[in-house]
Write a structure and sequence with these properties.
422 residues, 5-stranded mixed sheet
Length: 422
């Protein structure tokens, strides 16, 4: 079955060698990886997700995902393979491992964190069952033999004809973290990983009318405002929002991510943390009401329709680049929280969990993961300087939140081979 690309278009046209548009999930297991068990788990998993076993092809001027029956590649390294190339058997998904780390790499246009989490629930079920010779509970896990509902396959956006007309919202430029910190010459993509106790942070959220996503956004806003108290540009955090609820498409596998804009207004700066938390939650609540969320969907649908209206890749690349540059000027940083991973009984075998993707156009993205009793905050930067991480950690300290700066790594993501660069 061929799938004509639609929601995948903009992610495809904004990917570059410097910023591959993909999701890389790194899982550190309790024990050394058993390659035979991993091969078994990947093979079983990909049988359950045939819509990810595809090859990018161009037909009559348009891109499609065609069935790809070649094996999904697993390599013994932390580097992975170039997606959509001979190395990856022309798949947009691949796996790799080394010591006790296993890694999933997948094109972000094909799915988002929600979709990738589903794949990993299946993978971990099969891997742990085989590796440890145990019988894990199957409840809530997609397995081979399931009837795959149409709702998993179909793009819920492309044929929606009843979306509301997006409102024109003239937002001012946001504070740019690279410009303000003078980091224009620092091009070393870096990730700082911070761990926080899940139970303690959730208690802190409850005490201050927050949620993981809104509270991290607020603490980051406060940290940046203290760094630049006289800044004229507004501090605006984009909090990623799952659009499946508004679309009534909970099973959809596509990348369906919108954003709620959280503005740290001047009048809020003297408020208590709890009052600020209430304000941020209110902003999210208002912007995620179905009508407002669907306006965001309509905006994204319009962009993809504009790309489809152009015949050449060169024209499409120009439009995508222009839209990206406009969007990046409106946001100071991005925060993303998929939700509690809930890998069920397999979590007892997991030691660490990291969710990496390209740092956003404005240079700073925080990915929040909740696995096995702790939150991991991955600060994904297009620069190496720890200036914003240090400010954020100071904010945690001042609010009595205990943290562990686990490690600092080069933000390494495998390349995606693009058809127009061949």
């Amino acid at each position: 079955m061929e799938q004509k690309l639609f929601t995948e278009l903009r992610p495809l046209y904004v990917t570059t060698k410097e910023a591959p548009n993909e999701i890389r999930i790194r899982i550190r297991m309790r024990d050394l990886i058993d390659p035979a068990s991993l091969r078994h788990a990947v093979d079983m998993t990909m049988r359950r997700y045939p819509y990810f076993c595809v090859e990018l092809q161009k037909k009559e001027g348009n891109y499609v995902f065609a069935e790809n029956h070649r094996p999904v590649v697993i390599t013994n390294s932390l580097h992975g393979v170039e997606l959509n190339s001979e190395e990856s058997n022309y798949h947009m998904i691949a796996f790799c491992w080394q010591d006790n780390w296993m890694i999933l790499d997948v094109f972000h246009g094909m799915t988002d964190g929600t979709g990738a989490y589903e794949v990993l629930r299946t993978l971990l079920y099969y891997y742990c069952s085989e590796r440890y010779q145990v019988k894990l509970k199957e409840e809530g896990i997609r397995l081979v033999g399931d009837e795959i509902p149409e709702e998993e396959w179909i793009d819920p956006v492309v044929n929606r004809a009843d979306l509301p007309t997006p409102e024109r919202n003239e937002m001012s430029n946001a504070l740019n973290v690279i410009d303000y910190a003078g980091l224009q010459d620092d091009h070393r993509h870096t990730v700082y990983s911070i761990a926080i106790s899940e139970s303690e942070f959730m208690r802190f959220n409850l005490d201050n009318d927050g949620s993981p996503g809104t509270m991290v956004s607020l603490l980051l806003s406060r940290a940046i405002s203290k760094m630049y108290p006289r800044a004229e540009d507004v501090i605006r955090i984009a909090l990623c929002v799952n659009q499946r609820k508004a679309l009534h498409a909970p099973l959809a596998h596509q990348s369906l991510v919108g954003g709620a804009m959280l503005e740290y207004k001047d009048k809020m700066r003297d408020w208590s943390l709890e009052k600020q938390g209430t304000a941020y939650r209110g902003m999210v609540f208002a912007q995620t009401q179905e009508e407002n969320a669907l306006m965001g969907v309509a905006s994204i649908k319009g962009m993809n329709g504009m790309l489809l209206s152009k015949e050449s890749d060169t024209e499409r690349l120009g439009i995508a680049s222009y839209i990206n540059s406009l969007a990046s000027r409106l946001v100071t940083a991005t925060v993303s929280y998929v939700g509690k991973a809930n890998y069920r009984e397999a979590e007892q075998y997991i030691r660490d969990f990291r969710l990496w993707t390209s740092s956003s156009g404005n240079g700073l993205l925080v990915e929040i993961s909740a696995v096995n009793g702790r939150f991991t905050l991955d600060f994904l930067q297009s620069f190496s300087s720890p200036v914003y991480v240090n400010a954020f950690l100071k904010e945690l300290e001042e609010n009595g939140i205990v943290y562990d700066l686990q490690d600092v790594n080069e933000l390494e993501l495998p390349n995606i081979k693009l058809p127009w660069t061949e």
